[in-house]
């Protein structure tokens, strides 16, 4: 938790592009709000006390940063903070908060969905249906299958709980190894990933993007997996060396992949991933449930009320680690209005 004192009438810059965030009336009553797109960000930051990065995919903040002459607090409308965690912010006194807690269950549902899709061969069933072909097949069970969730934050924990409820055997991989974890049981050290990847039928990437995790799923990681393993990425595209993933799929080193995030977004039209068999693609939407934009504003509004009230902020990111430490205050309070 962190206490940041707001001035009597704070100036808030909101990076939002063409679509302004909904339900901002209460905040507009309590602050001078400057809505801006990427081109106007520097001007909006001059004299601003806080920045709400509603357009969380934008990479404009580092370029506009020199204009932030009075900024005390930056909130991003996502769990991942890599678009704004650049040296200037990391080395400053500006407090960074995120929207941890909003997408956890929705992403967990997505992961369960793609696991079932692989096991029950739904994609091929749809192809056969469209072709008018009746072809009986046998499919896999997911109960008892081994899953490794790489990333032990709130989203990873939600995934672990949902997959366990479906009968799967789930382990985690994080910064430090441990046993007796309430959601994962056993947590392996992610630095030794290739040692234990051969044990798993499904590998789910949901780690934050840091210097240590960038490119962690490379040729050596895919070579270590079972030929029957499926890889799921709902974390960050840059966790994966895409060319190595394509090569592993083409050579049969792994059996399939479900990808919601990519090194380059949108995924280039020439990417072989578009047409590869046993590959499921979605356009960075695994957590985007109906009403998610309003929920993101509710999270920010809860922290805004705490800011103007001189209370500790929720979801304060450790700028050295790149995420909210698990032992610190999470965002549960926003849902209850506390």
Question: Mind explaining what this structure looks like?
Answer:
With 338 residues, this protein is α/β, with parallel strands linked by helices. It has 2 domains: 2-102 and 290-336, 3-Layer(aba) Sandwich (Rossmann fold), CATH 3.40.50.720; 104-281, Rossmann fold, CATH 3.40.50. The chain has helices at residues 25-30, 41-45, 61-64, 87-90, 104-120, 122-130, 154-165, 193-196, 219-224, 242-251, 292-308, 332-336; strands spanning 2-3, 11-15, 32-36, 50-53, 73-76, 95-97, 146-150, 169-174, 178-181, 185-189, 202-205, 230-233, 256-259, 279-281, 312-313. The strands form 3 sheets. The protein has an 8-stranded mixed sheet, covered by helices on one side. It is elongated and about 70 Å long. The model is unreliable at 329-338 (pLDDT under 50).
């Amino acid at each position: 938790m962190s206490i940041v004192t707001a001035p009597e009438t704070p100036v808030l810059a909101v990076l939002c592009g063409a679509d302004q965030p909904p339900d901002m009336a209460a905040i507009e009553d309590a602050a001078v709000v400057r809505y801006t797109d990427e081109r106007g960000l520097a001007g909006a930051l001059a004299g601003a006390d806080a920045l709400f990065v509603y357009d969380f995919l934008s990479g404009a903040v580092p370029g506009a940063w020199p204009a932030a002459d009075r900024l005390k607090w930056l909130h991003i409308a996502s769990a991942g903070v890599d678009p704004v965690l650049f040296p200037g912010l990391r080395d400053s006194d500006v407090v960074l908060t995120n929207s941890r807690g909003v997408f956890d269950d929705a992403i967990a549902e997505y992961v369960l969905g793609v696991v079932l899709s692989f096991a029950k061969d739904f994609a091929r069933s749809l192809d056969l249906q469209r072709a008018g072909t009746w072809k009986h097949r046998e499919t896999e069970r997911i109960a008892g299958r081994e899953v490794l969730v790489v990333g032990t934050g709130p989203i990873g924990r939600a995934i672990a709980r949902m997959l366990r409820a479906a009968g799967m055997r789930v382990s985690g991989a994080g910064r430090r190894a441990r046993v007796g974890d309430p959601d994962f049981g056993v947590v392996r050290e992610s630095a030794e990933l290739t040692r234990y990847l051969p044990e798993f039928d499904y590998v789910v990437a949901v780690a934050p993007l840091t210097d240590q995790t960038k490119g962690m799923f490379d040729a050596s990681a895919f070579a270590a997996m079972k030929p029957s393993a499926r890889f799921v990425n709902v974390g960050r595209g840059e966790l994966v060396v895409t060319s190595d993933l394509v090569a592993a799929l083409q050579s049969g080193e792994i059996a399939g992949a479900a990808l919601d995030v990519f090194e380059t977004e949108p995924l280039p039209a020439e990417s072989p991933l578009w047409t590869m068999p046993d590959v499921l693609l979605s356009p960075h939407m695994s957590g985007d449930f109906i009403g998610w934009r309003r929920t993101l504003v509710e999270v920010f509004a809860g922290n805004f009320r705490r800011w103007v009230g001189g209370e500790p902020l929720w979801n304060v990111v450790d700028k050295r680690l790149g995420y909210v430490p698990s032992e610190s205050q999470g965002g549960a309070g926003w849902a209850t209005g506390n």
